[in-house]
Each structure stands twice: as C-alpha cells, then as structure tokens.
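ugh ok fine here u go
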Amino acid sequence: MYSRPIEVLPILWKRPRLKHLVPVEELLRVMESYKINALTLQNYMRKVIKGADEIFSQDLLDFYILEKEMNKGIYVLSFASKSLLKERLSVSYSDGIEFKFFSFKIKDEKFSGEMREISEAEEKALKVIQESKKLGEELGIEVKILRH
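structure:
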C-alpha cells in the first residue's frame, strides 16, 4: 500500500539540524510525503524513546495516537518537542503564548492495532502543560494554556 519504506526515518533523525534532531514540522512533512503507517511509526518511536537516541528521547515530551473515526481508519498523531517549545517561548510576548499540540491526521484503512485509552492521552496532555509552564518560568515568560 505504501510506496516508500520506513527506513527513510532514521536517516532524517540522525541528520544534524540546528539545536534538535527532528523538528516537528519536518516529521509531519515526511509522514505526509511518504504516507507512513501510523502504527509502524509509533512502534519505531517507542524504540527510540527506550534509549536508541538519548538526545531525541529527552527532546520528546509527548507522543500518542488518538483514534478519531474508528470505522474510517482516520487517526490523529500528536506529539510535542521541548526544543521547539523553548524556541517559541524565547520570542518576546507581553501577553503570554498559546501552545497547541502538533497534530496530523493519518488515513490508514488497514490499521488494526489497539488504540490507547483517552484517559492516558489526557495524562500526557497534562504533563505537556506542566512542562510548558515550567519552561516559561525558567525563561521569565508567562505561559497561558488555551484549551480547545
């Protein structure tokens, strides 16, 4: 079903790029252009987080997949990067900053893996909110979390 192999990802992750290895925008672009299977990517990311790449595992704050429409095979992949968040908070804002998850819809008719529970996703969202506020305090910037 997919014309490009998953092996393209480790090459992109190891390529030097600014302060962090993988900008979230680049990963989203790669996923879209290579039409990567959501479950395959999730399993690969778990291996990375377990210690295959220390820097990337420290940079990744959150990664999970939420099922959106069960019968249609549409999923939202959400994750947040600590490096990207720091860069966004470093910009001078007088009235705070809005932080949202980077999300990407994935269409995969053959996806058959078990989805994580919504409650687990909410716990991870809380962790990102807490980390956002902590980074804001370190930089002396007010962080406002807008729920949507």
